[in-house]
Amino acid sequence: QVRLVESGGGLVRPGGSLRLSCAASGSIASPNYMGWYRQAPGKQRELVATIRTGGNTNYADSVKGRFTISRENHKNTVYLQMNSLKPEDTAVYYCSYRAVLSGNTYFGQGTQVTVSS
Description:
Number of strands: 11
Oligomer: single chain
Structural class: mainly beta
Strand content: over 45%
Shape: globular
Largest sheet: 7 strands, mixed
Mean pLDDT: 96
Radius of gyration: 14 Å
Number of helices: 0
Distance between the termini: 40 Å
Order of helices and strands: EEEEEEEEEEE
Helix content: under 10%
């Protein structure tokens, strides 16, 4: 089992910034992917960004150039720096973990991000 604990959500004005953090604990396997998904009201959960243990990253087109994902492997922690936020970024953001070899996947409880004036 892997436990994921997110922090850093909140209310921000359009054009503002937020930084999300997620710490993983438990049976952490390497290599792995950690990342972020989001789900807006009435919509399906969608990929925001992922980062592999070695640093390879993947972003949704809608956030490229605005969001940056990073990780600290020794802390099993992943971050999402979100800049130039837009109202359409409003969603519950979920941290994710997936072991590369087994495919075992876990999600955190989610943290609310609201972009509004």
